[in-house]
Amino acid sequence: MVTRPAPSLRADGITAGYGGVPVIRGISIAAGPSEIVAVIGPNGAGKSTLLKSLIGILRVTSGSVFLGTDDVTNRPPEELARRGVGYVPQVNDIFEPLTVLENLHMGGYLLRASQVQARVEEVGQVFPALTPMLRRRADKLSGGERKMLAIARVLMLDPKVLILDEPTANLSPKLADSLLREHVTRLAEAGKAVLLVEQRARAALQVASWTSVLVSGETRLEGRPQDLLQREDFEALFLGAGPSGPARNTVEEENEDR
Amino acid sequence: MTIFEAAFGFGLVSMSVIAIAAVGFTMQFGITNMINLAYGEVMVSSAYVAYSLNRAGVSIWIGMIAGGIFGAVFSFLLNRVVYAPFQRKGTSYLGMVIVSLAISLMIANILLPIVSYNSVSYAEHAGSIIRFGGVVLTVNQMIIIVLAVALMVGIHALLRYTRLGKAMRATAANPSLARNCGIPTQRVIDMVWLITGALCGVAGVVAALNSDSFAIASGGGFLITALAAAVLGGAGQPYGAMIGAVIIGLMTELTAAAWSAEYKEVVAFAILVLVMVLRPQGLLAKRGALAAAG
Fold first, then answer.
1. B288 CB near a chain A CB, below 8 Å?
2. Chain B: nearest CA to A182, how far in angstroms?
3. Cβ neighbour number for residue A253 with a 10 Å cutoff
4. B173, A105: Cβ pair inside 8 Å?
5. Of A95, A113, A135, the CB nearest to B173
6. Among A87, A97, A102, whose Cβ lies nearest the Cβ of B289?
7. What residue ranges define each of the domains in chain B, with the CATH number in brackets?
8. What is the CATH number of domain A9-94+159-245?
9. What percentage of chain A exceeds 70 in pLDDT?
10. Which single residue of A6, A107, A230, B238 could bond A153 by disulfide (Cβ 3.0 to 4.6 Å)?
């Protein structure tokens, strides 16, 4: 039996979707301090939908979301930001026409004016690469710099919970690896609960402390990554093809498709 | 003094009036996604508020402040009561344009029994005359120019240096991300309607002051010139609207001098059509909605 920390964020059997059609059904997931929880699964499994329903963008039709012991089901995104949940969407993750510094200021919108500058400097220590480009317009950044800015922006409020939707989606494999191994791992070590959706399943499994496999809107499998990787049916499950799934090397292909 | 020097002087005043109107109009579109065709009628209503005070013996400049306050409150309520509920229901862009057109007609028809369709003029002494080389301006015209410059600098400072202004730009660029930052976008949008409504009200009064007379029917012309300047500069871009106002203001007055004052709005409209054909994204479109100025 694995012992996990008391969850900072917990979803209890949530169902949500678009226009009354549920995309995810009865999903339970939790992330505690210093944990990296990776949600993996094929395209269309409902991974992003799950994250959106956790942070109040999408309406949860049944089940509950808890922050610590507080029920925050269907609370608006502004309130979740105030309560310490930082969310980095997969796309549209920065304010493009604003400068890097202005993006950070917006990330720290809820801080007192006197705290903002100090916090910009602290966040700059987490992502030193951003410091020389504070005056640059955010849409001039490279893919990797952009994602760093997106994460730096949510760090402005020093959130307890970090929710990242495919942070490596538009990055080269090398950059993706360094983002997950260096930055995400370091944030978890600093005590944050990290909930991560990833297409690059193998890379995610290497940094995660807990993994949930989502297939067709339902949790197919969950556990410690090393336990999951030992299961013979893991790759088949991951691809959502059932026990008699495709040939072995397909997981690698899936990883390379971005 | 040649006729073109005089036209240049009038052009300075026109561009000031148009800039105040166009910046308000373009910010409504840029931040709240609303092409508010009732803008011209709100300008006219505000001009009438100033007119009623002016008739009671109050200075037109006090009347202008009252017009600005009226424009702010009216626009705020218009959004809260009409536009925002339609937008929440997911009404399309085109649907919203038609809603605002309907509002424009409703305002005009509500005004009609109150003020009648006759033209009126402010009773305000134009003030003494100031000369700059060949350009001759009245004190009132100078006040309009200085006011416009002050308002443009104010809008620039608001958007660039204040927390509220940056939140407005963030909301314009990415409303969903703004909410994730904890920005109360609803309150930000309320502030946008108050500020742009005040610009609209002030613009209505100075536009009326700058014309010999005005009537309910002036709303269409006010709207077209503001719209032309906003589209020329790149819809949704305050700095673009300022540049658009300079060009439209000069062009209309030069045409008036060379040709006939009757054609002012025709020229504004012709520029609008030309921009739509040649550069539909406007002059500053590449900079993105409410971009950083750097």
1. yes
2. 24
3. 11
4. no
5. A95
6. A97
7. 3-117+148-287 (1.10.3470)
8. 3.40.50.300
9. 90
10. A107
A161 and A85 Cβ atoms separated by less than 8 Å:
yes
Lowest mean pLDDT of B166-170, B199-203, B250-254, name the range.
B250-254
Pair of tokens at residue A207: 């940094």
How much is the pTM? Answer: 0.87
pLDDT, tens digit (0-9, with 9 covering 90-100), for B86-132: 999 999 989 999 999 999 999 999 999 999 888 999 987 777 888 88
Q: Quote the CA–CA distance of A152 and A120 in Å, as a whole number.
A: 9
Considering only CB atoms, which chain B residues are within 8 Å of A105?
163, 166
Q: Which of B161, B163, B177, B237 is best to mutate for the A interface (most A CBs within 10 A)?
A: B177
Written as six digits, the tokens of B294 are 């750097």
Residue of chain B whose alpha carbon sits nearest to that of A152: B181
From residue A125, alpha-carbon distances to A110, A166, A199 in Å are: 21, 23, 28
Angle between the N-to-C axes of helices B218-233 and B185-210, in degrees from 0 to 180, rounded to the nearest 10: 120
Contact state of B176 with A77 under an 8 Å Cβ cutoff = yes
Note whether A89 and A165 are within 8 A (CB).
yes
How many Cβ atoms sit within 10 Å of the Cβ of residue A115? 12
Cα B61 to Cα B124: distance, rounded to the nearest angstrom: 10
pLDDT 10s digits, A38-61: 999 888 889 999 999 999 999 999
Per DSSP, the three-state class of A5 is coil
Residue position matching structure tokens 């059932």? A242
